[in-house]
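Lecture notes, continued. The same structure-token format from the folding unit now serves as the input rather than the output. Read the line below as a description of shape only.
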């Protein structure tokens, strides 16, 4: 018993010493979507701050595919030492709800929540070339030509897909879901006019609207958005409940990552989001900063899992 106790003490000392020197080498932030999308943009913003504050590189690595399943499973299997972490979104939970027999991770058993960075309200956008000026016109077009109006998504089961499926259900229409490997490529196709519209997290939209490359038809917030004061909410357009589709983005580490390392990561991310410059950039992007503790993030994830399960049941979304 004494030997076991001694080994436990030595292990605790080793872990503590490692945490005190963490990070001692570059840290990889794995993003399951293509570069340029909302999750990637915020990950790079925070990584830049964390690199400066720790003196070690926080490197964003994009591994798109399968609605972030590839990236999520890779981090779930990574060494729990804090040097490979996941910059994730609601796909962490939705994939497990939609495809419990396919995903090779458990969103709660295989990860240690670090901190929720922000929530990203969604807006409905289209190219000015479509000639659509309101949700009423969009829905009328979908009813007039079933199966011709299309909406781009970041992948099957993502927030953009769930919102599009909810819109079909709410309006009794049939539209075409066009999935991409991330929001960035999806938005590019909407701006080109090759896809009719999409639900898109509000990040970066104001810049595209100002450049007349996009038009916002409605916002998925409880009140009108400050960046688009003349644009109605979806509820005002007769489509309540879409604020529930707002995704989050945050950091998770592999399960069994030492608590001191998890805490250090959370502290560094909150430090980043407390910077005046970063908060202003987040505001400009349209993100709602959260920056919570590991315990608060863990509690949020359990509630969010239940919320998305309800959304999926209501909308009838199925994995393909």
């Amino acid at each position: 018993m004494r030997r076991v106790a001694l080994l436990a003490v030595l292990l605790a000392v080793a872990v503590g010493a490692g945490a005190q020197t963490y990070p001692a080498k570059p840290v990889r932030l794995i993003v399951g979507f293509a570069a340029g999308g909302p999750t990637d943009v915020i990950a790079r913003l925070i990584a830049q701050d964390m690199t400066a504050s720790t003196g070690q590189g926080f490197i964003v690595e994009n591994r798109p595919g399968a609605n972030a399943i590839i990236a999520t499973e890779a981090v779930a299997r990574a060494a729990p030492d804090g040097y490979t972490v996941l910059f994730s979104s609601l796909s962490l939970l939705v994939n497990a709800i939609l495809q419990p027999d396919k995903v090779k991770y458990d969103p709660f058993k295989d990860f240690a929540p670090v901190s929720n960075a922000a929530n990203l309200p969604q807006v409905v956008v289209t190219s000015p070339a479509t000639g659509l000026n309101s949700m009423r016109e969009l829905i009328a077009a979908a009813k007039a030509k079933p199966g011709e109006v299309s909406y781009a998504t970041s992948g099957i089961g993502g927030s953009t897909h769930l919102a599009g499926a909810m819109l079909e259900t709410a309006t009794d229409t049939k539209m075409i879901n066009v999935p991409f490997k991330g929001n960035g490529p999806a938005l590019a196709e909407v701006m080109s006019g090759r896809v009719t519209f999409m639900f898109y997290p509000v990040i970066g939209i104001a810049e595209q609207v100002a450049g007349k490359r996009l038009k916002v038809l409605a916002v998925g917030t409880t009140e009108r958005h400050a960046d688009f004061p003349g644009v109605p909410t979806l509820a005002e357009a007769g489509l309540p409940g879409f604020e529930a589709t707002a995704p989050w983005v945050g950091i998770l580490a592999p399960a069994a990552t030492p608590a001191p390392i998890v805490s250090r990561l959370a502290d560094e991310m909150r430090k980043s989001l407390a910077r005046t410059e970063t908060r202003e950039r987040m505001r400009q992007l349209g993100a709602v900063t959260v920056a919570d503790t590991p315990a608060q993030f863990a509690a949020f994830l359990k509630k969010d899992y239940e919320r998305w399960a309800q959304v999926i049941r209501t909308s009838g979304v199925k994995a393909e």
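Point for the exam: The domain at 25-119+247-315 is CATH 3.40.190.150 (D-Maltodextrin-Binding Protein; domain 2).
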